[in-house]
Amino acid sequence: MSDSQPPSGSTPTPENKADTGFQPGDDTFTHWRNIFAILMGRMTDEGKEQFRVARDLRNETEDCKRCETQRDYLFQYSPVIRYLSDNIRQLGGDLSGHNIYCRRCTNRKAGGFDPEYGILLCANEMKDQGHLEDTLAHEMVHAYDHLRFKVNWNDNLRHAACSEIRASSLSGECRWAREFFRRGQWKLTQQHQECVRRRAILSVQARPGCQDKAHAERVVNEVWDSCFRDTRPFDEIYR
């Protein structure tokens, strides 16, 4: 046997494959071994992502079922979801279980809106029912804007920026408690405005037509005053 060959029965390991600290496996021992590796700082960022992907795959059915149950509950009992649904219906739209999908997402986002297909809720990213309510309200504001203002999502960054400002402002995701306890944003003044601006810039920056962060900031600033003041279909920002 050549010295370069592995011993019989062993699995060859590429020399250039870095150890991320993640151990694959669905058994309880391996699961806790990975958790302790994270807590002890022995797992790389790549390993943490591998751990999250494995967890999401393992819990996909349960996550989607819980997401669908919470979605249906919110359509019955959430004031903001019911109000947005009624106003979307008045504009000729229809959002319900048939076009609001709970799915496992591979990119780290909470949801999305597509004018042709409806709303996507990333079941594996939902922390709790409150998080799902904020995410659903955000995407429903996009749906309202699409019907009410004929938003050009693909070719007009100003249109997209305006809807992102309104969605972050009106959905409740930028209320003080959410920023303070969930995201570590501890300012006591101008917190809501700063959250809305930050999230709008990130969303615009991710669009294909945006050149860079500076471009996104410029577009958001151009439409900020009129779009932040526009609370339709609500009378005011109440969440």
Summarize the structure.
The chain is mainly α and 239 residues long.
Structure description:
By secondary structure, this protein is mostly helical. The chain has helices spanning 28-39, 45-58, 60-77, 79-90, 129-149, 157-170, 176-182, 191-205, 213-229, and strands at residues 100-103, 111-114, 118-122. A 3-stranded mixed sheet has the order 1-3-2. It has a domain at 151-238. The protein contains 9 helices and 3 strands. β2 and β3 (118-122) form a beta hairpin. Mean pLDDT is 87; it is low at 1-16.
Strand order of the largest sheet: 1-3-2
Overall outline: globular
Structural class: mainly alpha
Bin the strand percentage.
Answer: 5-15%
Q: What is the number of helices?
A: 9
Helix content: 40-55%
How would you summarize the topology of this molecule?
Blueprint: H1 28-39, H2 45-58, H3 60-77, H4 79-90, E1 100-103, E2 111-114, E3 118-122, H5 129-149, H6 157-170, H7 176-182, H8 191-205, H9 213-229
Parallel strand pairs: 1-3
Antiparallel strand pairs: 2-3
GO cellular component, one term: mitochondrial inner membrane
Organism: Aspergillus calidoustus
Enzyme class: hydrolase
